[in-house]
Amino acid sequence: MDSKKIKKLNKKKAKGTLVNTSIYVQGLPKDITFEEMKYFFGRGGIIKIDPTTLSPKIKLYNDELTKEFSGNALVVYKYEQSIELALKYLNETEIRPGFKVKIEKAIFNKSSKSNIAPLSETEINKKRKQLKAAEMEEERLLSWSNEQHSLNSNIASRIVVLRPMYSRKEAEMYPEGDDFYSELEIEVQEEVTKYCEVVSVTCIPRHPQGIVCVKLKSQHDAEIVIDIFNQRYFDGRQIEVHMYDGSTDFKASCI
Question: How far is 118 from 13, CA to CA, in rounded Å?
């Protein structure tokens, strides 16, 4: 690679517009563990993978005077929507009994990024390999598909399953064809459409686990829905969202 191409890559890197997906956290216990951080903040969505360490991007800040952990940290999510979820569901909640965390969207000093050191060809290639490894790790974390259903993977990877969107009592109460199910489909579609394009919503009537399936335009959109809605609360119930496996017949389990 000649010097002109290297300069072009560095210039592109310096001028590229980056989306802020980071939150700043205060009030953490001084002995907080990395695993606790991953579990708690993972409830807001997929945490971005650090290309260098291949670990979730969580930075703990030390006090400038004591050099001990200050109780403050930076968490970098994969998607921007996760900031909204963290602020809504994790802010002012206890990560441990007696330790209520304060969360805000991270603000970076733009002036500190004005002079970016140019990279050599070797450094650029190294960065590319690190980024590729990080992308593969993120794909592994987001993958819900079963390899044995590879023939259906193209369609299945665009369908997400939400449960329980209604209770067993409601499943026993409302027969198939009742307006309850169509109204639930409309409600789910309106909510998911806020984040990505919905192809269709199918509520499985009288399923003991309250199953609703949402078909998206792309696998990327399906991953976003999982990231945003998994572990959120709906009508007082914490819902689980995952990719459809391509073979399960939900209707076979209906009451």
Answer: 9
The residue type of 49 is I
- Specify the residue for token string 């216990």: 29
DSSP 194: T
Do the domains spanning 18-107 and 156-253 agree at the CATH topology level?
yes
**Whether pTM exceeds 0.85:** no
Question: The domain 18-107: what is its CATH number?
Answer: 3.30.70.330
For the stretch 88-98, pLDDT in tens is: 878 998 999 99
Return the closest-CA partner of residue 25 out of 109, 94, 91, 108: 91
Closest CA to 18 of 44, 46, 48, 45: 48
Q: What is the pLDDT of residues 35-75, one digit of tens each?
A: 899 888 887 778 888 887 888 899 999 998 898 999 999 99
Locate the domains of the chain by residue range.
18-107, 156-253
Distance CA 156, CA 197 (A): 16
Looking at 20-166, list the stretches that DSSP marks H as alpha helix, in order from N- to C-terminal side.
34-41, 81-85, 121-142, 153-156
Q: Which CATH superfamily is domain 156-253 in?
A: RRM (RNA recognition motif) domain (3.30.70.330)
C-alpha 19/C-alpha 78 separation (Å) is: 10
- The predicted-structure confidence for 134-192, as pLDDT tens digits, reads as follows 677 666 655 543 333 333 445 667 899 999 999 999 999 999 999 999 999 999 999 99
